[in-house]
Specification:
Structural class: alpha+beta
Low-confidence stretches: none
CATH architecture: 3-Layer(aba) Sandwich
Helix content: 40-55%
Oligomer: single chain
Distance between the termini: 16 Å
Strand order of the largest sheet: 2-1-3-4
Mean pLDDT: 90
Largest sheet: 4 strands, mixed
CATH class: Alpha Beta
CATH superfamily: Glutaredoxin
């Protein structure tokens, strides 16, 4: 199963927007796992530092950063589709 990680933070409005898009994407592509990780958690902090993410949200596809900061949802979904992991 393919995996998308959303690095987010509680109370982060842009994070909620990206989460909504990813949930809609997952509903159409159940073979893609979507996991949310708290930015301030130990795992989230490590992921952020390793990838130069200063603030949430950030989206990773199979461990590779594909979007961060002010995320354009259409570009994010296009990047996921281009990975040929999704069957849309």
């Amino acid at each position: 199963m393919s995996r998308i990680i959303l690095l987010s933070s509680v109370g982060c409005t842009p994070c909620l927007r990206v989460k909504r898009y990813l949930n809609e994407f997952h509903a159409k592509n159940p073979q893609i796992e979507v996991e949310e990780i708290e930015f301030s958690s130990q795992v989230g902090s490590k992921l952020a530092v390793e990838n130069g993410v200063l603030y949430p949200p950030a989206v990773f596809l199979e461990g590779k950063l594909i979007a961060k900061g002010k995320i354009d949802a259409e570009k994010m979904i296009a990047a996921i589709q281009e990975s040929k992991m999704a069957n849309i």
